[in-house]
Structures are given as C-alpha cells and as structure tokens.
Amino acid sequence: MKKTAIRIFAMAVAPAMLAGCLESTVGPIDHDTVAPGPLTDVVWTPIPGGAEITYEYPTDSDLLYANASLTKKDGTVLEFKASLYTNILTIEGLGDTDTYTVKLEAVDRSENRSEPVYVDIVPDTPPVMKAIETLDVIADFGGITISFENETQANLVFEVYTPGDDGEMENVETFYTELASGSFSVRGYDPVEREFQVFARDTYGNWSQPYVGKFTPIYEKELDKSLWKEYILPGDAECTAWSCKMEYIWDGRISADADGQTGCHTGSDSGTEPKHFTFDLGVKAQLSRFTLWPLQDDKHYFNDASPRKYEIWGCADTPPEDGSWDGWVKLIEFENIKPSGYATGILSEDDRIAGQNGDSANFPLDAPAVRYIRFKSIKNWVGNSNVTFTEITIWGDDRVEQ
Fold it and tell me: How far apart are CA 219 and CA 207, in angstroms?
C-alpha cells in the first residue's frame, strides 16, 4: 500500500513540479536590476516621413536592443527597436515635416532601461505628401485617369471621391500600390462636368491634402457584341481547338475549362511564331478600353495557353484580302503580370483574384477609330504562341463617322 501511495503521490506532484519549472523559465534569463548606460554619440539624418538615427551603445555586457519612441500629433505613440547587432534605428510613419521629439533608450536582457536621451528630428517630405504633388489627372473615357509617382515605393493607397446621387461626396475608387510610378482610371460617368477629389494615405494612417479638380468625362459605351462576327483572313490561326470557337469570346460567358463553349483556342503546337485572328466589330468606333478574361480555373490562371504577351491591332476599313498588315494600326501591346511572381503552376490568392478580374487596359486617347480587330498572340504562359481565353469586352465611342 505504501508503494502504491508513494507512486500516486509522485504522479500527482510531477505536473506541479513541471509547471513550476516551466514558470521559472518565463521572462528574462537575467534578473538584475541594474540599468545599462545611455546611448551616446547620437546623430540623426532626415528621410521621407522619418529619420535614421545612429548611436553608440554603452559597454554593458547584457545589452539587448535600442528603443525609440515618439508621440504623433494625434496622440498615437510610435515605438521602434533595433537589435544589438546594428547601431542604426529607423523612424518612419510620420505624415508631415514638423519637429518630433524622440526618446532613445538602451535596454538589457532584464528589460532594464537606461536613462533616456532625447533628440528632435524633422522628417523629409512624407511619401503621401510627395505622391499627391505628382498627380496628373486628365479627363478620359467615362471618367478620369490618374497618373502618379511614388519614388520611395512606399505602400500607398489612393482614394477617389466624387458626388453621388444625393450630391454628397462618396468614395468611388480605392487603388493600392507600391510601384515607383503608375496610373489608374475611374469610370462609369456621363459626359457631364463633375468634381473629383483624390487623397493619398499610407499604412500609418497619414492622409495627404486632397487633389481637387473638375473634369468632363469623355463619352464611351460598351460596344454591342451582337454585331461582332468572325472575319477570317489568310494567315489567321484557327480558333477551334478543343471544341472552341472564336464566337465564344463574345457570348457573355466568363467560364472555366470544363464548362463547355469556353472561348477560343488556337491549338497545342509548340511554335513560337506569333499567331493572330481577326473579327469585325460591326461598327467603327474610337476604342477606349478593354477587359480580357482567361479561362476561370487554376489550370489557366497565369498558366497553359493563357495569353501572356499580346497585341491588339485595328483597321478602319475592309482589311486587305491577302491577309497582309497594310492598313492595320497597333492599338496596344499588353503583358500579363502575375502578382505573386511565383513559378508557373503555383498560385497565391492574389493571383486568383487577378485571374478572376482579367486583363484591363486603356487604348491611347489619340488612337484612330477602327472597325476590325486583329488579336496577335506573342507568347503564352508556357512559352509558345498559342492562345486561349474565355471572353473580351471592348468600350468606345461609336458615334464617329462610319
């Protein structure tokens, strides 16, 4: 009985002892209460929206990191840390060029903090302020096009506002970017003058002053696909592989591979000579923009024969019967970019979203009016020039002289 009792007692005590051991290892390994010496030789250099601060550590053997903190104008406290292996601490996230007081401390392994050292910094112009100053906004088909520069490649968001039906300003576009420069468009408006406001904001909650302007959108409409028809010329690729047809790319169905009537498909050969095919819009129009959708499945998002590099050409009058390029004008060239940059066959959720949204681009404002379209596939996602996609929609102004 004693042996049994002792064994039971040991089993009961063991978890408690183990918990005590675990508890004793939580927190700093060292337990002294001696604060380290302060940081010395502090020098700061302004950067956009912040500063780089250099310093020398004290000689304490148990140092762990340097800590900086400051309070923004709205009361938000920002804190930054730098490990013992560097003597540069970067302050960022400030939305103006005012003076900020930064508290600097050395921290040891027992979380003891040194006497603070204070330094006043003045940031260079923040990315949100710089970006809003670079905006170039022009009236475009159905709305406006906004071009910007973001030289520091900061993580920025542009928000566009315009009056709603009740006359109150409402957010109509939110555009995210880390690009050094770029452009985006806001569409869907009648050719009547209206005000647009554009703001830039960053991930730290800083907002720019608004860009404000009044613009009259240029008239556009979605071209009537019931007028479109195949127009076969010598040298054109057939679009009938895998039971596909050219007419399926304007039947209004944005479909996956297994849905049937999926779109056009030029075949499975490994040739790299560009392939092209032609169709008639049924009406002459000055084209404004297009959207092209790949087959809606993982097999074709940034993969297989989905278009990667292609061109869209236009011809105003009846094309030459010999299939030559006389009279044809290149309206746009496009490269499909995979958001994640992953290898072919590997998809991120952003890749899938981009595939679902399709390719979209604006035609140049000075492009001539055309009636006939020639789609030219330069390269697909496996390296040859075959092409398959499920749907294309084109917008423009068909009020031009026919």
Answer: 32
